[in-house]
Design a protein that fits this description.
single chain, alpha+beta, Beta-Lactamase, GMP Synthetase, Chain A, domain 3, seven-stranded mixed beta sheet, six-stranded antiparallel beta sheet, 30 helices, 24 strands, binds zinc ion, T2SS_E_N_sf, nucleotide-binding, GspE/PulE family protein, T2SS/T4SS_dom
Length: about 775
């Protein structure tokens, strides 16, 4: 642009004036060259702002019903909904549309000045309030078509860059621009050759009338569905006709849904389903033309340049598609196809074979199309149902092979497979993970990269075990490539969350998460890492296996066969300039020692332990031979954790516990507090204090508590759905450090931690019962001593 950026045409010098109008002329020429209103808005907004020295520009067009103006929003750049204003004296832009007069307002918050223009004129402060943007100067002009003087829209400049009122030169320029746009808008909307909506081809090709299209658009708006849904469902139009119309409108090729499309794994590496669904574009393939992209609104993708940012230095080929076909393709790429048929159908397709078969026959049976489909279906179903493991349990003789899923920690039967298929079934799975199919007497383990067999991108860790009668069991663990859960979504109480935050944001030290297998330790560690994962931090992790991946982390998979154990990796990390190190687990003296050393040399170290409680972990580590002084120095904290089943929020039944139940619960809670000073001094008073605390936190206005019982519905398993973490967080406080140096016993450490505000796992569980999240049976189940 010819005018210096940030300088509004205020100084009034001849040179400025000339430069301004020369710039305006260039834009006018470009307006004449564009094809539709959206293109004008998308391509020229930034240049216009610069030319006029304005911070923002809004272009309104007249609504179809002609009683309101609607702002055209540049999608994808900032998330502002379009603004709709009645053509009336009640708003600034509305007034300009109503009176067809230009307004130049030095300060829109100056109510007296507005009232001098019209007694009804008001500035709508809501938008500023929502966006946090402060509007001041406004220069607003009506866009009127020349011939009939009909209103086409409104052009609004907001806030001058230099903070001064918009100048007469700006006024003159804006009027000229409004005229140009008036002509352009009138031409683009009225000329039949230039479609104004993406479905206009349907009208020009006489598949529907203009009135029908308008009616469909209105109906779609009422039902809040895409217009094409109404066109297909109510008016019987074909998907392809609509796709062609959309493509013609955007002047690109139409890209239909193809059921046999192969998922472009390489292009989708860093792209998540949510992103695709929100941004409405999807890469399909890379060919000699470039990266081919499917979009429901090619203009938007082009304008936002988002695809160019995702695939820098690549040619982007945008193709148009319908909303339906877009969604189907997203499903196809991000989820296993749904049309696999039911598992029962697949089972009935398996041919019963009475004879015990030879290896050759088994191999051919394992390659049997129906069996292949069945195995895929089992895996897909397990994944969709949120199962963590698949158990395949062949039984001797003619008994069927049982397949069970572990969901939320409990095994549930899934299907039974005919006895004759037990060997081919196991063989098929072994083939999928490259195990030795002839070896049946030794346990084997391997890994399935499932995306080789299905659009579903997950990995499975497979373990086979020889069982009685020459059979083999198979257990598959689903390693969903999941993302970390935000720290505040882990189910920590407020107190624990703030204490945890304070511990993990220290510059160095060591922090442990402890609990038995399956207690969610890795999930918690990743949430913690997610919280401190910033671009200026180098985080190395050694994991076995890598189950959760995070951008920014450098994650290494442990490979004991190749000599890469935790201790070796940690030493390698220390040579690789880390800030933070996470080690999957610390089981032996050597790993702990290296970890301690790392934390004492200025690194933040995280790991897990297979211990039951937080105080016990400390004693265990000291027993492993750690120097108490070094260890006390380094210790940031220990978080013990369990997962308790969560009551299904849909079907759980509320009840008020009676006095006896409350009293038992209180006893159970206070049991852990017996060693603390208040209980040693006056147990009764201390118990009452806890009861009072519960009253204020959890009881309703009548002083009643509400508990829940499990019921069971279609959405859950026996009244439970998902799990909630129970936590016991012990911090490395000064007093704790001192006791560690004195080699205090577990009970002493526990009493001290409780006095300092720690809650035991059971107490945390009881608080979650009081909060209605779970029930006591589940808490007791995971908090056994
Ligand atoms: Zn339920």
């Amino acid at each position: 642009m010819t005018l210096a950026a940030g300088k509004s045409p205020t100084s009034g010098g001849v040179a400025t004036r000339l430069a301004f109008f020369k710039g305006l002329q260039a834009i006018t020429t470009r307006i004449h060259a564009t094809h539709n209103i959206d293109e004008i808005i998308f391509e020229l907004s930034a240049d216009l702002c610069e030319l006029f020295g304005a911070e923002r520009l809004t272009i309104y067009t007249v609504d179809d019903a002609r009683n309101a103006i609607v702002s055209k929003v540049k999608m994808g750049l900032h998330k502002v909904n379009s603004i709709r204003l009645p053509i009336s004296e009640n708003s600034i832009a509305g007034y300009v549309a109503y009176a067809k007069k230009m307004l130049n307002i030095p300060d829109v918050y100056d109510e007296a000045a507005l009232r001098a223009i019209s007694p009804h004129l008001e500035f709508r402060k809501e938008v500023d309030e929502v966006t946090g943007y402060h509007s001041k100067q406004m220069l607003v002009a009506p866009i009127v078509s020349n011939e009939k003087g009909e209103l086409e829209g409104v052009l609004q400049l907001i806030n001058s860059v230099d903070g001064q009122p918009f100048t007469p030169i700006a006024e003159e320029g804006l009027l000229g621009l409004a005229q140009t746009l008036g002509v352009a808008f009138a031409q683009r909307t009225k000329a039949p050759a230039a479609p104004r909506s993406r479905y206009d081809l349907l009208v020009t090709e006489a598949k529907i009338t203009r009135e029908e299209l308008d009616a469909a658009t209105r109906k779609a708006r009422e039902r809040k569905v895409p217009t094409e849904e109404v066109l297909i469902e109510d008016m019987g139009l074909g998907q392809e006709e609509i796709g062609q119309a959309v493509a013609t409108f955007f002047n690109v090729k139409y890209e239909p849904f193809h059921s046999d499309r192969i998922k472009p794994v390489d292009l989708l590496v860093n792209i998540k389903r949510e992103f695709v669904e929100q941004s409405h574009w999807l890469p399909l393939e890379e060919n000699e033309e470039g990266v081919v992209i499917m979009a429901t609104d090619p203009e938007q993708i082009r304008a936002s340049r988002v695809a160019h940012n995702v695939f820098p230095n690549k040619n982007i080929v945008i193709r148009a598609t319908t909303v339906r076909e877009f969604r189907k393709t997203v499903d196809q790429f991000f989820e296993a196809s749904l049309d696999m048929g039911s598992v029962d159908d697949l089972l009935s397709d398996l041919v019963e074979d009475e004879q015990d078969s030879s290896m050759a026959e088994e191999l051919s049976a394992a390659a049997d199309n129906e069996l292949v489909k069945l195995v895929n279906k089992v895996i897909v179903d397990a994944y969709k149902q949120g199962a963590s493991d698949i158990h395949i349990e062949p039984r001797p003789g003619k008994e069927k092979t049982l397949i069970r899923f572990r969901k939320d920690g409990t095994l549930v039967p899934y299907i039974e497979v005919p006895a004759s298929y037990r060997n081919p079934l196991v063989t098929r799975i072994k083939i999928m993970c490259d195990l030795d199919i002839s070896e049946r007497r030794k346990p084997q383990d391997g890994k399935i990269k499932f995306r080789k067999y299905s659009p579903l991108d997950i990995e499975l860790r497979v373990a086979t075990l020889p069982t009685a009668g020459g059979l083999e069991d198979v257990v598959m663990r689903i390693l969903a490539n999941s993302e970390p859960i935000p720290l505040d979504k882990l189910g920590l109480t407020e107190n624990n969350l703030s204490r945890l935050m304070s511990a993990i944001t220290k510059p160095y030290g060591i922090f442990f998460v402890c609990g038995p297998t399956g207690s969610g330790k890795t999930t918690t560690l990743h949430s913690i890492l997610g919280h401190i994962n910033t671009p200026d931090t180098k985080i190395w992790t050694a994991e076995d296996p890598v189950e959760i991946t995070q951008k920014g982390l450098r994650q290494v998979q442990v490979n004991r066969k190749a000599g890469l154990d935790f201790a070796t990796m940690m030493r390698a990390f220390l040579r690789a300039d880390p800030d933070v190190i996470m080690v999957g687990e610390m089981r032996d003296h050597e790993t702990v020692a290296v970890g301690l050393e790392a934390s004492l040399t200025g690194h933040l170290v995280f790991s897990t332990l297979h211990t039951n409680s937080a105080p016990e972990s400390i004693v265990r580590l000291l027993d492993m031979g750690m120097d108490p002084f070094n260890f006390a120095d380094a210790l940031l904290g220990v978080l013990a954790q369990r997962l308790a089943k969560r009551l299904c929020p849909k079907c759980k039944a509320a009840y008020h516990p009676d006095v006896a139940e409350m009293s038992n619960l209180l006893d159970e809670y206070c049991l852990d507090l017996q060693m603390t000073t208040p209980f040693k001094e006056d147990a009764d008073a201390a118990r009452k204090a806890v009861a009072k605390q519960w009253q204020t936190t959890y009881a309703d206005k009548q002083g009643q508590f509400t508990f829940y019982k499990p019921v069971g519905c279609d959405d859950c398993t026996k009244g439970y759905r998902g799990r909630v973490g129970l936590h016991e967080l012990m911090l490395g406080t000064d007093d704790t450090k001192k006791r560690i140096q004195e080699r205090a016993r577990v009970a002493e450490l526990l009493a001290l931690a409780l006095e300092e505000g720690m809650r035991t796992l059971r107490q945390d569980g009881i608080e979650k019962v009081l909060a209605g999240i779970t029930d006591m049976a589940q808490v007791r189940k995971v908090c056994v001593r």
